[in-house]
């Protein structure tokens, strides 16, 4: 199975939306309640383009198997060298190396663009994502206890950090 990592294009928004909406409805990967519309996802895509922040997709057999992106960690000037990333893999494409390829490429892009550190926010119950990030050298920085509420339960959010230089 050949995985192609490439820059996302507007034509990918529908498949990205499918991945996002599945996670919203079925997991605590995204701390959101309502499915997004195509228009909302398109606005997100366009804003990333304006901000010059990457969106990459993993493509397998002409299908989006996953996507990744990053953006400035917080919207104040002093954070301009710190990015927080997101990676989502389609439910049918997990355990095929898609996430590894996406994160490797995001780290490469962040280094090439002069960022100093990359941050991951991982749901406290998502041990696979936590270990995945640790395998890339991310270090656990701390946990916000009961910061989210979804599926009738309180959620902890773990933060991990990778220095890029």
Automatic annotation (TrEMBL):
The keyword Metal-binding does not apply. CDD domains: NAT_SF (cd04301). Keywords: Acyltransferase, Transferase. Gene3D superfamilies: 3.40.630.30. InterPro entries: Acyl_CoA_acyltransferase, GNAT_dom. It comes from the Bacteria. The keyword Cytoplasm does not apply. Residues 3-158 form the N-acetyltransferase domain. GO terms for molecular function: acyltransferase activity, transferring groups other than amino-acyl groups. PANTHER family: N-ACETYLTRANSFERASE, UPF0039 PROTEIN C11D3.02C. This is Phosphinothricin acetyltransferase.
């Amino acid at each position: 199975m050949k995985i192609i990592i490439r820059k996302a294009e507007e034509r990918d928004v529908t498949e990205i939306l499918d991945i996002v909406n599945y996670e919203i409805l079925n997991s605590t990967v995204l701390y959101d309640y309502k499915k997004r519309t195509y228009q909302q996802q398109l606005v997100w895509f366009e804003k990333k383009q304006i901000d010059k922040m990457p969106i990459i997709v993993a493509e397998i057999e002409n299908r989006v198997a996953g996507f990744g992106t990053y953006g400035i960690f917080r919207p104040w000037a002093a954070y301009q060298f710190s990015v927080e990333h997101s990676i989502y893999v389609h439910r049918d494409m997990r355990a095929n190396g898609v996430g590894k390829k996406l994160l490797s490429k995001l780290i490469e892009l962040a280094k090439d663009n002069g960022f100093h550190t990359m941050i991951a926010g991982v749901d406290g119950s998502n041990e696979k994502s936590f270990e995945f990030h640790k395998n890339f050298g991310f270090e656990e920085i701390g946990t916000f206890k009961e910061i989210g509420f979804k599926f009738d339960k309180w959620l902890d959010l773990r933060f991990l950090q990778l220095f890029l230089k």
